[in-house]
Amino acid sequence: MSRLASLAAVGFELSALTVGELESRSPIDGRLLGRVARVSRADYDAAVARSAEAFRSWRAVPAPRRGELVRLFGEAVRRHKPALAELITLEVGKIGSEAAGEVQEVIDICDFAVGLSRQLYGLTIASERKHHHMLERWQPLGTVGIITAFNFPMAVWCWNAALALVCGNALLWKPSEKTPLTALALHRVLESVIRDFTDAPAGLSALLHGDRPVGEWLAEDTRVPLISATGSTRMGRDVGVKVAGRFGRTLLELGGNNAMIITPSAREDLAVRAITFAAAGTAGQRCTTLRRLYVHESRYAAILARLKRAYASLRVGSPQGADTLVGPLIDRAAFEAMQAALASAKAAGGIVHHGERINVEGMSGGYYVRPALVELASPIEASLKETFAPILYVFRYASIDEAIAANNAVTQGLSSSLITQDLSEAELFLSAEGSDCGIANINIGPSGAEIGGAFGGEKETGGGREAGSDSWKAYMRRQTQTVNYSATLPLAQGVKFDIE
Ligand code: NAD
User: Fold this and answer.
1) Which class does domain 2-254+462-480 fall in?
2) pTM, to two decimals
3) Is 336 assigned a catalytic role?
4) In this structure, which of 19, 54, 212, 417 has its CB flanked by the most CB atoms within 10 Å?
């Protein structure tokens, strides 16, 4: 357990990690990190009841005061940043700078939410009736159920949690069964802040460890008005239907199949760096990872040659190594899915470069791969779906219209990017006739979003928006209010209803 000093640093009793059936294994070498107990149905029901009770008092706490709780949480996360980042590296396999970047996102969204807590603004609306006024006000919603994926085990929860808290809601968090310890550590930090905060009720936030059934309980639970679920499209299809069936609300953040277009005027160095980070960074395990590359035919040979060289020299290894750029895949299933996709691409006529397993000394239990490039003449089944591993399908194109159509010709719609020095091409890509994705970038890759913008995607990515801009509205109940300050009762639309 000495590797988990980072958990001890946030006040966790390490001996508690020896009980429970849910195992956490490090993707670095497959070693057991600890065990936690799955929540029982009875524990779950008790947590939902406590959270309903907590909501009743939290909604009446002034929003700026709720923001103060989030400010203190952000400060505590700042203090524990190195320990929390180390834990992400251990449990998810992210390299040091990416793990620290994820904790930074937690801090950034807290800062954003604190400012927001002094806004949560509505509208005043002109009334057609004399001496009346209309308002649009945003009210707290209730308990927010947050289901998260393994690959952003802290940031995604906090994008939801920080906003939901300042909006006056209680929280239930069902983290990925692959990352229980990162969830435990971050939630422990919030629990200690809640404990010391006079206005925060016990039960304001609960952590619910478990696998899929716990997510299903949340999806079916009429006591939870909003389910924010991040993960695969398969999961979202299930959760979306269940929550809609009970007229609940969903905020879905699902799989992506993101593309980049390299135009004739693209700066080559910038393009190669953008491609390599977006496609191979985080070992291809971001929802915004670059998976399809469209290169103009005039640049294809040169860009491909540069990419092959860059890929051959990528430093793959333990994420704890200072020079490592590509850490391990999360588990054996991810490795097998990658190899199956590469085999099917080869069978369909694709030219596969790299993608092989790499033996890292002393880490035989980890699944390390050299990221793969696959040259294709046209789309194949594998390139139309998201394989959560570092595979980049490379196509050539002749016209910008053809490239934009190809960018949009998949069922997912998360992120997209175009590399160009040509203003007309850039503006076309960003126009109504351009990219159909939730995110469209020029001269950067599709990954690495900042929290100030609304994050999310269209089509099978689920349509949800989290983090910045006005995403907070998803966590509140919109209420239209009309006030009559006259002594008479005129009816709208000139309706008459005079009684004796
Ligand atoms: P996953 O779908 O296997 O699991 C995600 C979460 O959903 C886990 O907590 C899991 O227990 C739960 N779950 C699974 N099936 C469920 C069901 N039927 N009902 C309720 N809960 C259920 O995803 P993963 O492998 O952990 O993560 C990778 C996926 O997440 C990729 O598809 C990636 O693109 C996506 N992702 C999307 C975003 C985004 O913002 N769009 C961000 C991160 C990850």
Assistant:
1) alpha beta
2) 0.97
3) no
4) 417
